[in-house]
Write a structure and sequence with these properties.
mainly alpha; 11 helices
């Protein structure tokens, strides 16, 4: 698609544009945070109830019924709920960044028709509100780890791992938000794919349960090559296992995150010039 003489829009130029519109980004973030639990009696308590209820259910099913055994924590004990929690934190962040941009962009459709502003400001605002949710979940995770005596120096890597997870998911979310503006089926398809991907990643079960090969297919290698598996594994290394992730893992998740984010954002900027007509 030809965008005229101003295209291509360089990343540095767009960074400057977003920086100049940072009050608008902050406004969108504040609006998203306020609307999340509006007219709710428990308010932000739901931000804890939702992930904790999920952990409780999966712990009951996989630990009690299917008797899945997690690897030992850094302190030598086993705790399936904390093993699951450490994976859920990074997965929830990724899923929010993938699906959120579709809703955040659609939510400013009327505003885009009246006022000219960079559409990605709404997405960055929504992403900021999603990051707040992750901060709450991470704080609870680290607090519980401290209570059970599983604190470790390796936890200093958690912000890096979560930030790269956020960039990776947001890069995909940028592309999907444009696709969803043209075809509303995308939102429903993404929900199905994420549900499948959730169970294809060792989140609710340890990687030790994945056979190296089945029907001639190298299942373990395929799972290991899944980018989200690497982000989840890095999160567990720094929290549950109390281990330093390999430089290869830390480097690869950073490179994948930067490339995906840059490509997705660049595509969004080019494709969103007249997106208000499609919303």
């Amino acid at each position: 698609m030809d965008l005229g003489p101003q295209s291509p829009i360089h990343t540095m130029s767009q960074l400057q544009t977003i920086w100049n519109h940072r009050p608008l980004v902050a406004n969108f973030a504040q609006r998203e945070l306020k609307s999340r639990y509006r007219r709710s009696l428990l308010g932000w308590t739901w931000s804890l109830i939702n992930p904790l209820s999920t952990i409780l259910i999966y712990t009951l099913v996989f630990s009690t019924i299917f008797r899945a055994t997690p690897p030992p924590m850094g302190n030598g004990t086993e705790n399936f709920a904390l093993y699951l929690f450490s994976g859920i934190v990074s997965w929830n962040l990724f899923a929010t960044m993938v699906t959120g941009p579709m809703d955040w962009l659609a939510g400013v459709a009327d505003l885009l028709r009246k006022i000219r502003f960079p559409p990605d400001a709404a997405i960055f605002g929504g992403a900021s509100s999603g990051a707040v949710q992750t901060l709450i979940e991470s704080a609870v995770l680290l607090a519980v780890m401290a209570v059970v005596g599983n604190s470790a120096t390796q936890m200093i890597l958690l912000p890096y791992v979560l930030f790269t997870t956020m960039m990776f998911g947001l890069g995909i979310g940028f592309v999907l938000s444009i696709a969803n503006a043209h075809f509303r089926d995308v939102r429903h398809l993404v929900a199905v794919v994420l549900n499948m991907l959730f169970f294809l990643c060792p989140i609710v079960y340890p990687p030790s349960l994945v056979p190296e090969e089945k029907w001639g297919v190298p299942l373990l290698d395929i799972v290991s090559l899944n980018p989200m598996y690497q982000y989840i594994a890095a999160t567990r290394d720094s929290t549950y296992l109390g281990e330093w992730s390999s430089w290869l893992r830390l480097g690869s998740i950073g490179v994948v995150a930067v490339v995906t984010f840059a490509a997705g954002w660049s595509y969004f900027v080019k494709a969103s010039v007249d997106i208000s007509e499609e919303l």
